[in-house]
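Good morning,

Attaching, inline, the backbone tokens for the sequence recovery test we're adding to the shared suite. The designed sequence is right after.
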């Protein structure tokens, strides 16, 4: 009788807890996404139109792109603050855009990318930080697992896709750099990163008057990396022409070549 009570009452509790825990695991969600997608919240087909990069991928990489974008949206809280009731702002489209850009940047890297950043807050314009007591366009805070963006500056980054200035790419680049530096998992190959750092050290120590990168890149190594990634994706042909050695090591660091993908 006691065994019957145990089987009917006690045993289901840990099984239920285990079931809930398993459903939250990445590997389990991935199995469902690839083989049983009807059990998951589907990702919008708008994704294809938001990111033309997607259309140049192989069918296998498109599926992986969709999976990574889906998982990013599932595990990242994207909040919009102080927007009020604005019928002109499509918040879902912005969420998909953020996920697609994050996926584009990391498609060929480990799936652990951005695991340390679970919240993104978007403000209509520059926002005031009580910490720095200044107004900011964007901010990446690893201690809070937080990325903050100004929508006006964010949007401006897509007005001209060839100027090498994109706030979203910039702040996501900071997140990757800090993850690789501060957390236990490796985003970038260590040998390639060491080679990249040697090249950057030479560049920063000898800044020419009219450098391909904007001056803000030379503030520190983190800003240099963020500006390098902006240019890597927005104007790769110019980047390769102006800074071939740095461009080549960036293709190995991010494990992709936008020039090749853009011409497929």
């Amino acid at each position: 009788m006691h065994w019957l009570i145990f089987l009917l009452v006690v045993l289901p509790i840990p099984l239920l807890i285990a079931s809930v825990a398993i459903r939250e695991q990445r590997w389990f969600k991935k199995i469902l996404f690839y083989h049983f997608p009807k059990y998951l919240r589907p990702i919008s087909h708008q994704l294809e139109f938001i990111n033309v990069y997607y259309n140049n991928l192989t069918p296998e990489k498109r599926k992986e792109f969709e999976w990574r974008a889906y998982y990013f949206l599932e595990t990242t809280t994207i909040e919009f603050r102080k927007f009020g009731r604005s019928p002109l702002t499509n918040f879902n489209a912005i969420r998909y855009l953020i996920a697609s850009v994050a996926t584009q940047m990391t498609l060929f890297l480990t799936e652990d990318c951005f695991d340390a950043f679970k919240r993104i807050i978007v403000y209509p314009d520059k926002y005031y930080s009580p910490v720095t007591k200044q107004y900011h366009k964007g901010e990446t805070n690893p201690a809070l697992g937080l990325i903050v963006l100004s929508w006006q500056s964010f949007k401006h980054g897509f007005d001209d896709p060839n100027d090498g200035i994109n706030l979203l790419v910039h702040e996501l680049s900071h997140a990757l750099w800090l993850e690789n530096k501060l957390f236990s998992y490796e985003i970038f190959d260590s040998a390639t990163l060491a080679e990249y750092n040697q090249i950057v050290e030479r560049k920063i120590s000898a800044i020419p008057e009219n450098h391909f990168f904007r001056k803000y890149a030379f503030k520190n190594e983190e800003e240099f990396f963020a500006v390098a990634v902006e240019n890597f994706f927005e104007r790769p042909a110019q980047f390769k022409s102006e800074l071939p050695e740095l461009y080549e090591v960036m293709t190995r660091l991010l494990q992709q070549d936008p020039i090749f993908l853009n011409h497929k």
